[in-house]
Amino acid sequence: MERPRGAYFPFGLGPRACIGAAIASAEASAAVAELCGRFRFLPAGRVVPRPALSLQPAGLRLSAVARQRA
């Protein structure tokens, strides 16, 4: 299902934009970095490319494998 162009603004726009957008983005980056440090993410099946503005995986599913701590 396609969203209409301009329908997704997670932090809003203009004078009523979320004042916490920068900190939320920084926290999301830190969370992804922490997860990537603790787990390896592997494709759970065949990855099929889907042409869009750039190639994107269609229906990508990942499995997480814990990394060994030294």
Automatic annotation (TrEMBL):
Cite the Pfam families for this sequence. Answer: p450
Keywords associated with the record:
Heme, Iron, Metal-binding, Monooxygenase, Oxidoreductase
Q: Which PROSITE patterns match?
A: CYTOCHROME_P450
Name the family the entry cites.
Belongs to the cytochrome P450 family.
Q: InterPro entries, per this entry?
A: Cyt_P450, Cyt_P450_CS, Cyt_P450_sf
Q: Which organism is it from?
A: Actinokineospora soli
Name this polypeptide is given = Cytochrome P450
Q: State whether keyword Iron applies.
A: yes
Domain of life of the native organism:
Bacteria
